Amino acid sequence: MEAIQLNLFNLQRFQIMALYANTASEQTVSPSYVYAWFAGVYPLLNESAPWHQAYEGLFEVRATHLRELYQFLSECYAKGEPPSFFQLEEHYGIRGAQRPGLIWEQSTLIRACRYLYLREEFSRSFWTTMLSGDQHPMEAEMIEEKFDRDSYFFE
């Protein structure tokens, strides 16, 4: 049964990504939703699209973890105190010798933040501050990169 669900998940993932990549079709899915499927991030904030709900346990970044990250960043945003990416890593215990943390790894935290960025959550200055100076790993710079049809290939 587990293999069947994984196959259905991969088929759904392919269909969503293919729909987005098809230049002959009208753009009917958002970049953030496609990115979530592409990157293994549960698309928690794309509530109008139900296709991911049956597969919550198959996304590498689970809904509960993304919800907690979103709440934490929302609190920082409300206070006007965006954390640097290194501070975010420290908050989740994945800095220095404690890699990976209990829930997050640097790569999953970057992908989750990129999903939120592509959803246009928080202001651009919030993200710019998070990634300013030398307070982030070079890999985190992908958070602010554009995601479009040319961002992935099917081979």
At a glance:
47% of the residues lie in helices and 0% in strands.
Strands, helices and their partners?
Blueprint (H helix, E strand, L loop, with lengths): L1 H20 L9 H9 L23 H17 L5 H7 L14 H13 L5 H7 L25
Describe the structure.
By secondary structure, this protein is mostly helical. It contains six helices and no strands. α1 packs antiparallel against α2.
How would you describe the shape? globular
Strand content: under 5%
Find the structural class using helix and strand composition. mainly alpha
Largest sheet: none
Number of strands: 0
Distance between the amino and carboxyl termini: 27 Å
Mean pLDDT: 90
Which characteristics define this entry?
155 residues; mainly alpha; globular
